[in-house]
């Protein structure tokens, strides 16, 4: 997915400078008051410095294609193959534990999980094959590939990166474990921090505490946390550093009611399942009232 939009560079540079200043301030505050919401008291087990994440409510989730966001949008998530949006906080999507559709050739066959000689695919996404995180050597090799992508996100001008499919082990038939994936997650968060990017947990609500405290993630991207009654798993760990995407086909009640729920994150949107662009008749983007 590729896309870009045009804004004045001076404005973009100014906004990006402000956001990075917020990140530095957040790190300093965490050092002073380790008990503040969203600040880990012990820090990540990998010794990596956490990176601050700005307070936002208006955001857009554009994995189905890049387009110019609404004027008041503060944060945009796009695929790593797309350009970041100028003038807003930009999050880079990386499929870190499974192959991205069409990218199978980018991976050495010995880094793919196999069963009876055949690659193990995600049953819900059959064109995504699970990466084999079962050994330290394989995790190092996977991190080398992903590290170039993460650094590419930073070079392109993204401010943060979200890592998808942290729960791939649950689809591996017991060939992989949470500890295998957590070990890789620690490496990826460390690479992101070294590149100056905030590192985001994507889903995996039930493992939030370990991903926050051990791997050192800075924020969370949740999908359908209201639909599955998982929102507090993220907000208890990350405070306001949580963005949530609900989808029209699984919304448990009206979006207005979901927004009014005390457990819902402050940053929440409703989107169509395929995340299409505004020129598609199926496009949906609704935001909670401010």
From TrEMBL:
<protein>
    <recommendedName>
        <fullName>Glycoside-hydrolase family GH114 TIM-barrel domain-containing protein</fullName>
    </recommendedName>
</protein>
<feature type="domain" description="Glycoside-hydrolase family GH114 TIM-barrel">
    <location>
        <begin position="59"/>
        <end position="276"/>
    </location>
</feature>
<dbReference type="InterPro" id="IPR013785">
    <property type="entry name" value="Aldolase_TIM"/>
</dbReference>
<dbReference type="Pfam" id="PF03537">
    <property type="entry name" value="Glyco_hydro_114"/>
</dbReference>
<dbReference type="InterPro" id="IPR004352">
    <property type="entry name" value="GH114_TIM-barrel"/>
</dbReference>
<dbReference type="InterPro" id="IPR017853">
    <property type="entry name" value="GH"/>
</dbReference>
């Amino acid at each position: 997915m590729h896309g870009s939009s045009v804004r004045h560079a001076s404005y973009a540079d100014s906004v990006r400078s402000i956001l990075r200043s917020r990140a530095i301030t957040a790190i300093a505050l965490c050092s002073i008051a380790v008990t503040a919401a969203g600040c880990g008291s012990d820090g990540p087990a990998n010794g990596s410095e956490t990176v601050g994440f700005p307070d936002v409510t208006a955001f857009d989730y554009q994995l189905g294609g890049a387009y110019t966001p609404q004027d008041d949008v503060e944060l945009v998530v796009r695929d790593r193959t797309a350009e970041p949006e100028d003038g807003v906080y930009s999050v880079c999507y990386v499929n870190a534990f499974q192959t991205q559709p069409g990218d199978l050739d980018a991976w050495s066959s010995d880094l793919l999980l196999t069963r009876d000689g055949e690659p193990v695919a995600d049953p819900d996404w059959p064109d995504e094959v699970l990466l084999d995180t079962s050994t330290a050597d394989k995790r190092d090799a996977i991190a080398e590939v992903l590290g170039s992508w993460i650094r590419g996100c930073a070079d392109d001008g993204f401010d943060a990166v979200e890592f998808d499919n942290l729960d791939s082990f649950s689809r591996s038939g017991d060939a992989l474990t949470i500890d295998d994936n957590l070990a890789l997650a620690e490496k990826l968060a460390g690479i992101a921090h070294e590149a100056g990017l905030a590192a985001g947990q994507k889903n995996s609500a039930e493992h939030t505490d370990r991903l926050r405290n051990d791997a050192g993630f800075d924020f969370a991207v949740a999908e359908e946390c209201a639909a599955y009654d998982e929102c507090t798993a993220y907000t208890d760990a990350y405070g306001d550093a949580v963005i949530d995407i609900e989808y029209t086909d699984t919304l448990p009640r009206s979006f207005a009611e979901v927004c009014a729920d005390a457990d819902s994150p402050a940053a929440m949107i409703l989107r169509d399942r395929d995340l299409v662009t505004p020129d598609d008749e199926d496009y949906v983007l609704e935001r909670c009232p401010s």
